[in-house]
Specification:
The model has no long low-confidence stretch (mean pLDDT about 95). About 25% of the residues lie in helices and about 30% in strands. The strands form three sheets. Strands 5, 6, 7, 11, 12, 13, 14, 15 and 16 form a nine-stranded mixed beta sheet that branches. Strands 9-2-1-10-18-17 form a six-stranded mixed beta sheet. A three-stranded antiparallel beta sheet has the order 3-8-4. The radius of gyration is 20 Å and the shape is globular. It has one domain: D-Amino Acid Oxidase, Chain A, domain 2 (2-Layer Sandwich), CATH 3.30.9. The chain has about 350 residues and is of the alpha/beta class.
């Protein structure tokens, strides 16, 4: 094969997409330290294909989400779930965005919506309830699609293989897409190591009453919650701005307390020894009383990584950086921007 020898580090959605795109004219090897792809943050999240509704304080993130949705759909359409009912609510108290501002925001970016109450919603605690045009991803189909892309593009996939400094000598280009671990391979380039905010997060998996079937509910814009169908499992994922985070630090590397090591990136853990399940439910009851019927199936744990000091806007950019002539890093907090990042890398290389 003609072209360059390229190492892509990290088997998340970004590493997979970049490896697949670059393999068209290059010899690509994908390094993944875990025993399967999509086993860290790419496989432990709310699986929301963002269109911007979530970010009323960050116009840049909205524009980026709308742009990236189309390119992502072209590559991963089979994984997009079209049968969910997606709702956004504005809390009556403690919201950083008012009903009036949110509706103005929706109009500005031409985001479709219909004012519609959710039957199980405690309406006295929200100022607005709307049904929106947004989609979720089926994680099982997404993984199958990713493996199919890798095999079709003949990317060499090395599982259970943590890349070392040797990759810089063995390959013409190295693309680092390791998210929470992005600074590790840059130890020889300390001035290029960035400071991030690391959050050890829990996603709880629950069984809910039939009233929740196919419903995705997000409460904005503050210390609130979301509940989403978990693929086609008849289970649901719950997120919470406050209670999902067990530990957090700002620095070049995540600080992980020993008791969490056995929980991180291990998929759904039944009867986890450490969980905020009760806090999730108690805080959600304020908006959805029926949530008290939730049965805790298990929890997933991973490190979420964001830019620090962005609380005012909650901005989630996608950043492609060139370290030197052969090394690149890719950082992003949104699944859908992976195709955009891959095309950017392709143009540079």
């Amino acid at each position: 094969m003609r072209g360059k020898r390229i190492a892509v580090i990290g088997g998340g959605i970004y590493g997979i997409t970049i490896a697949s795109v670059l393999s068209a004219s290059n010899k690509v090897t994908l390094f993944e330290k875990n025993d399967d792809i999509l086993s860290a943050a790419s496989g432990i999240n709310q699986f929301r294909l963002h269109r911007g509704y979530h970010y009323p304080r960050s116009p840049k993130t909205v524009i980026s989400s709308l742009k990236s949705e189309k390119s992502f759909a072209q590559e991963y359409r089979p994984a997009i779930m079209a049968n969910t009912e997606n709702y956004y609510c504005i809390a009556k108290e403690k919201s950083k965005t008012s009903q009036k501002k949110y509706l103005k925001f929706l109009g500005k970016f031409k985001l479709e919506y219909k004012v519609e109450e959710i039957p199980s919603l405690e309406v006295r605690n929200v100022d607005l309830s709307i049904r929106v045009k947004e989609y979720l991803l089926n994680p099982l189909i997404l993984k199958k699609k990713c493996w199919a892309k890798l095999k079709k593009s003949k990317v060499k996939v090395l599982l259970k293989t943590e890349a070392s400094d040797r990759v810089f000598d063995d390959f013409d280009h190295v693309i680092i897409c390791t998210y929470a671990d992005i600074n590790r391979l840059l130890k020889k380039f300390p001035k290029h190591q960035q400071v991030y905010q690391y959050e050890l997060c829990e996603k709880i998996v629950v069984r809910l009453p039939k009233e929740f079937k196919n419903k995705s509910i997000v409460v904005l814009d503050g210390p609130f919650m979301c509940v989403d169908p978990y693929g086609t499992t008849n289970l649901f994922l719950m997120g919470n701005v406050d209670h999902a985070i067990h530990e957090a630090n700002i620095g070049k590397f995540p600080v992980i307390i020993n008791k969490y090591h056995k929980l991180l990136n291990k998929g759904v853990i039944k009867d986890p020894p450490i969980t905020n399940f009760k806090k999730f439910i108690d805080s959600t009851e304020h908006f959805i009383p029926l949530i008290t019927k939730a049965k805790h199936v298990g929890s997933m744990y991973t490190i979420r990584t964001v830019l620090p000091y962005k609380d005012k806007t909650d901005e989630r950019p996608t950043i492609v950086r060139r370290i030197n002539r052969k090394i690149f890093t890719v950082f992003s907090g949104k699944i859908a921007n992976c195709v955009e990042a891959a095309e950017k890398i392709k143009k540079i290389i």
